[in-house]
């Protein structure tokens, strides 16, 4: 330990004598480690961390791909949805599971302590907490006894975060009553702080027994409907049983269940029935929970982690170059120390300690930079966005990751220069010849040249990646949305959560529409069941009147809208008329379809006046008349293709309970927000308002991930280019200094400044050529990896590759020009005299 203290004291003194070197090394590392730690915090929270439950490795997620008939409600993967009767049968018959639980998220209106607000609810089976192994932090959790009879168990468990936010962590909340979707519920417990459900990015605020579904979703009571797919199933395998073994053992259990269900299916041909009976239960790893958020941003996060890793490699290359230059400059010092008795082992140890000192300092500063970057990244997302709700932070795991990077950087990139210093021949070094001087300098120069070549290759990869993401975002920005989002603001209300019937909701919508139209500056008002550009989706199979035999129409998306919906959003009509207030519950059912549906489902004929119906089967009678055709518009994501869409009248929807209102004004719509809230409160003071924002902001948020990918990849590319430029400048400056005598002789013999500049610039051309030969193929490999998350961009985009190469050439030449200019202006007499 005394040797270590002595080495540390000496390292501190050495770094104090070279503050510029220390600052450059620490700053270079801090930028690389900070960026890596920030992205790792997100990757760790979204993709690596397991659920805080007992033995998460035993959990599996159930999926069943294949044809199905009926209605499906999901938040991502339709194949992961099952009917409640199917869940119940699997729980009773499957022997491979130690437990099988079901869950479904729902929107909750919570009235408590004098205020009403939205919350995220979770319907869970009574064995949910027991199978997962989640104990309460206060009170008790739900048990099987709370989930036996429909509507008979109005109890709820709060998440720790919601308990703290809404109720101030008040321990007296137990056994108190809250009003949940118009029904009184008793609070019986609070979950541990670490547990907020089984889906990262979508934490549940409260948990309610599954048997309370009729009360929580009053217009969608499908608890016993075998053709309604809505429940997600998580199982815990019996100890020692692998997923593959469990899947094989489930075949004789699942097949009879499908055969029992087959008689309920209507209007399917024999091939489809065979495909249905061939369906299997697939088991996916469940240790990380449901992966809806991961499936959406997993690849972008991994791509960012790869790119920021390249930045760290470039930073470490610069560090190694700095150490090599510093070692070459300290040859005489090392020679003297060896000559007066220092051992090579001691010299090596001291150099490594010195290197580790500023790498750890760089890691500590990198943590601060990581916290700043992470805060900036998450702040870019709206407060209710999934990425904000994952609660990524600089925790001990991130500290460990940053510390490990610092140690690896110090060891891998510091030992090499230290080892070369320890190999010195003190006699020849002090004599000013041999390995200690000229050859050591040339060795350091060759080492730094290879480092710079690697930097060029890595920087080229990052520049191409930034170009690909920028090209993708540019393509998204040019997509014809089919709407005019300017001067439109929207907000959502859910009267059903306050006990409204469908008829009361329709009456409220009509009165609210009239009141909002009367506001100054408002041009038009309308509402829809599903909001635009929020990834909301509803739809299913349809039956077309007069369709030719064997014609199987594609799945048709649907939305239920009010009068003036298309005028408010700026969607042009192609034929027919709009939905009117007279298209209510007492009138024949009508719909407006988009251009895509007209072409795909009514080829070669005029759809106006034709009829269709939702669903299929011999008992289905087409009773929805098509009254109009509109231009196809984007509804879910900007990148989605034009899909068949039918717009029905929400006035004719017997389960109407939630509406998103859109208001078009002749001024900045954000100025109307206060007036809109006032009008809603005037009609019902207890009605919560959610998601009030302009359509322009909604569109911007839908592209936020793409914009962040462009910003971050561009930032990493710029940082890499800056580090590469510093590396090129340092190497060429060092080379000019090493070749002063040679350059002086050339000038003395008549070489003109232009030829001297070409001599120096020739070095950077070699860096660029070799780096390009390595970097361009590597960039293509990366492009193939990220191609699936790009829009309208191919991996072999010649324009992007050419732009990246040209930019790298420009960076290299700009960095090389000052050393070349200095060499061309060298005084030959001074250079020869100094030798």
Describe the structure.
The chain has 835 residues and is of the alpha+beta class. The protein folds into four domains: 1-49 and 294-433, no CATH class; 56-287, no CATH class; 437-479 and 700-835, no CATH class; 495-687, no CATH class. It is 50% helix and 16% strand. It is built from 25 helices and 25 strands. Strands 16, 17, 18, 19, 20, 21, 22 and 23 form an eight-stranded mixed beta sheet that branches. The chain has a six-stranded mixed β-barrel with strand order 4-5-10-7-9-8. Strand 8 (177-180) and strand 9 form a beta hairpin. The chain is globular and about 105 Å long. The two termini are 44 Å apart.
Q: Give the overall form.
A: globular
> Into how many domains do the coordinates divide?
4
Largest sheet: 8 strands, mixed
Q: What percent strand? A: 15-25%
What would you report as the Rg, rounded to the nearest angstrom?
34 Å
Low-confidence stretches: 433-438
Oligomeric state of this protein: single chain
Layout of helices and strands:
Blueprint: H1 2-17, H2 19-48, E1 59-63, E2 71-72, E3 81-82, H3 84-93, E4 97-112, E5 115-124, H4 128-132, E6 138-139, E7 155-158, H5 160-167, E8 177-180, E9 183-190, E10 206-209, H6 213-216, E11 228-229, E12 231-237, H7 243-261, H8 270-277, E13 282-285, H9 292-329, H10 331-339, H11 344-379, H12 386-389, H13 396-422, H14 426-430, H15 438-477, E14 488-493, H16 502-517, E15 522-528, E16 539-540, E17 542-544, E18 556-561, H17 565-569, E19 573-576, E20 590-594, H18 595-601, E21 611-614, E22 624-630, E23 645-649, E24 659-665, H19 673-683, E25 690-694, H20 695-702, H21 704-738, H22 740-748, H23 753-786, H24 798-824, H25 828-834
Parallel strand pairs: 2-11, 5-10, 7-9, 18-23, 20-22
Antiparallel strand pairs: 1-12, 1-13, 3-12, 4-5, 4-8, 4-12, 6-9, 7-10, 8-9, 14-24, 14-25, 15-24, 16-18, 17-21, 19-22, 20-23, 21-22
Helix pairs in contact: 1-11, 2-9, 2-11, 2-13, 9-13, 9-15, 9-21, 11-13, 15-21, 15-23, 15-24, 16-19, 21-24, 22-25, 23-24
